[in-house]
Structure formats: C-alpha cells, structure tokens
Write a structure and sequence with these properties.
disordered N terminus, alpha/beta, 7-stranded mixed sheet, 13 helices, disordered C terminus, two-stranded antiparallel sheet, rod-shaped
Length: 330
Amino acid sequence: MTDVPSAAHSCPPTTGPLAHRVPDLGALELLLAVARLGSLGRAARETGISQPAASSRVRAMERQLGVALVDRSPRGSRLTDAGALVTDWARRVVEAAEAFDAGAQALRGRRDSRLRVAASMTIAEYLLPRWLIALRRERPGTAVSLHAGNSVAVAERLLGHEADLGFVEGLAAPDGLDSAVVGHDRLVVVAAPGHPWARRRAPLDPAELAGAPLILREPGSGTRQVLDAGLASHGGPAEPLLELASTTALKAAAVSGAGPCVLSELAVGEELAAHRLVEVPVAGVRLRRDLRAVWPAGTRPTGPARDLLSLTRGAFGPGRGGPAGPAAAG
C-alpha cells in the first residue's frame, strides 16, 4: 500500500530557508539505501536506525516534498516514479556532501600537520622543550616551529595570525588574548658570590631593591612587568645597570660580577646549585607571577595547539603552587 501525502501537505512551501524545504542528509542516505536494498527494514539496519524510525523519516520526507516516494508491501519496498527521480537528485547531493567532507578532512590534516608556538623567554628555554617532546610522542607527524620573544612580541604574533598558541609570564594576559593559567613562577634576585649582597644576612627591603642599579630584562618582558609592579609604590626600579633581552645574557653578566639581576628561579637553578650565583633574600615585594597559555580572544585552541595546552596542565608540582588548570582570563 502506498503512503500518499495528505492534501494538507501536497503543496509544501516554496519560500523560506532551504533547510526547511530540502530533506537532510540522513533522510537522503536512507532513501538511497531503500533504492539499493529494496527493503525499508534492511535500509534501516544499514543506516543504524530502527524500522519505525525509518518509516517515520520517509513519511516526513514525503510530507516535506509533497509527493509519495516509496511503495510499501509485504514483499518489500520499491520507489515510486517520483521516488526514483528524487533518488537521482539525492545521489548527487550525497556525492557533493562526501566531497565536502573529504575537503574538510584535508583542511584539518593541513592544520594538524603544523603548530606555530610563540613563547616568552623563560617558558621557551626552560619549560617548552619537554612539553614539545611529549607532544611529538602524541603527534609525530606535526611539524612545530617556536618563536621566542618577550610577552609583547608573543601577543603581536598571535594577533597577527603568525602563531597558533602562545605562552607568557606576567600579571595578566595581554590585551586581545584569552588565557589559561598553566603554572606559577617566582622571580629571585641573584648576584655573584663576590658581590656585597651575597654576604647579607638580612633580606633586602623594597627601598634598597628599588634604589640599586640592576641588570634587567627589557620593558615588555614578563619579568620586567612583574618587577616594575612590585616596586611601583617605591618609585619603580632605578635606572638599569644593563638592560638585556636574553636570559642567558643576564645570567652571564651576573656571574661575571657586573651586578645583581632579577630572573625566574626556573632559569637560575643550575647556577645556584653550582654556587656561581647566590640568591639574595628580599622582603616586602611580591615577585610571584602566573605562567599562561594565550590565544586570540573569542577563539579556542584546536588540533595540535589544543593537545599542547592539555600537556601543560598539571605540569607544576606543589613546589610551584600546585597543578593549575585553565582559568579563562579577559
């Protein structure tokens, strides 16, 4: 017996969104299966739905199009003349959808074949190498490029679509970026063993630190941002003795005895252990900072960028303030 659409549905609307007038892909795939298998039940099984659901979907298509598509009988199901014509059109739509899907997969493959990371110096030198090694184990086919610079440079690369994910140190995420806190860090004042500060027993107070010429990172770096903020109520740091853009250069200058410097404790562990540098205690100044993954506001990391972000979670043990999960900022 043929299910014929009722008169109320014999003239479907010819205006409005196309999605309301054209059956969805699932319905068209079901119709193609009925044409190929000659049975609504077998078509239902092939497409992963129940027979009642398949019958309902066919009836909904018939109401939507205003024509009968399938004759049902105890011997099976066959297409009406209109159904055969609609099936030809459906085949072209499904083929186009398959081409669309193949193209989308190719785009995802191209995206997932590379990862561009921008990171401020401390994270780039002391944390990212092990994260990238772990990422390579998970995604051996992904080519990774890393650009190291200060926090301002990282933000510029992300906002200029020259990086997929960034990492910065500082008090907050740069403007225009969302972030997740992945850990915490502490700045320390260090000096060569022969410097007078290395023999101090009492901690430096904020006024002493602010008044002393120091070897410092350049403005725009997360290290400088935190130090400037910590000493803001004391007039900020004095004119730097040296201003350098490289952590390695700062350490070398301090080890040579040129003067004290302020660096991440991540960067000076080896020098402190070997007694090439001495940590100078400081009281009354907050030199703690967040380590953040950053990306353009309003988006979310995808593909290898998302995987790298997940690898940074829980990377810091209790000595660094405990594991830090993502916390949206900005």
